[in-house]
Amino acid sequence: MPYTNEEGGRLNNFAREPKVYQAEPPTNEQKRTYIFLGLAGTALVVGLIVVAFSVSHVG
């Protein structure tokens, strides 16, 4: 484990740094997948809100 000696003989430990890499932009297929998942998530949330509203206002 990497460490340094500070004044007074104290040791200071540091975590290992991960490798840094340049992110690639999403492909057209990935963009379509993100749009589909966003629409499906939105539909789920709206559906849950409609169900909760309809159940709470019965009678």
Q: Could you tell me the number of beta strands?
A: 2
| Arithmetic mean pLDDT | 88
Assign a percent range to the helix content.
40-55%
Strand order of the largest sheet: 1-2
Biggest β-sheet description: 2 strands, antiparallel
Percent of sequence in beta strands: 5-15%
Distance linking N and C termini: 67 Å
What kind of oligomer do you see? single chain
Structural class: mainly alpha
Q: Per the principal axes of the C-alpha atoms, what is the gross shape?
A: elongated
Question: What Rg is obtained from the alpha carbons, in whole angstroms?
Answer: 26 Å
Q: Spans of 5+ residues with little confidence (pLDDT < 50)?
A: none
**Order of SSEs:** EEH
Count, helices: 1
Describe the overall structure.
This protein is mainly alpha-helical. The protein is about 50% helix and about 10% strand. The protein contains 1 helix and 2 strands, in the order ββα. The protein has one helix at about 30-55; strands at about 5, 10-15. A two-stranded antiparallel ribbon has the order 1-2. A hairpin with a 5-residue loop joins β1 and β2. The termini are far apart. The mean pLDDT is about 90.
Essential attributes:
59 residues; elongated
Break the fold down into its secondary structure elements and pairings.
Layout: E1 3-5, E2 11-13, H1 28-56
Antiparallel strand pairs: 1-2
Short overview:
The protein has one helix at 28-56; strands spanning 3-5, 11-13.
